[in-house]
Amino acid sequence: MKLYTYWRSLATFRVRIALNLKGLTYESIYVDLDAGQQQQSNYKSINPQMVLPSLVEDDGNVLYQSQAIMEYLDEVYPNPPLLPADPRGRARVRALSQITVADSHPLIVPRVRSHLAATFNLDEQGRIAWVRHWLAAGLDAYENHLSRDKATGTYCHGDQVTMADLCLVSHATGYRVFKGTIDQHPTVLRIVERCMADERFASAQPLRQPGAPAAH
Fold this sequence. Notes:
Number of strands: 4
Distance between the termini: 30 Å
Oligomer: single chain
Radius of gyration: 17 Å
Strand order of the largest sheet: 2-1-3-4
Structural class: alpha+beta
Number of helices: 9
């Protein structure tokens, strides 16, 4: 498999964790988002949306969109599972995952920030405030759900890692990149710290990828 990736792509971060958890090996193909390489024809032919990640299987099949990739990997490589066995559990894990994947992350990606700058003359400080607002709103939602739900355990759902943990970790990491702190979200903080103590999570994190700055 080939994973088209870039160090600061939070969506690709989620997929790297999933691949690590499944014990799958892959070749990393780096697409420099800051240099606009995602807009070049060779990558556009792989993913016409020109976003990361893309996971290309050995037979040439292209997978895209992080949640779809994670669920595909879970179906094809079922151990360890990323989704619970019961329908209610799966619905809860998917809902928690979508706080990041559907509600928060899409609002803060580079193309949205660029549009805000070009269309509404929002300066860099204003764009950072925008990002922090939506990531903080997502963290509030996570904390409120996780702290009250009996299904929350060591991790987001029970005592085994699920897809929700991958999404939560990427969310918290993104917030920290923009100088936010999760200290006011104690349940989130506990789960994120537990996950990041696992090398399969830690080795996937953005600042440990090739091309990442020493500090960001």
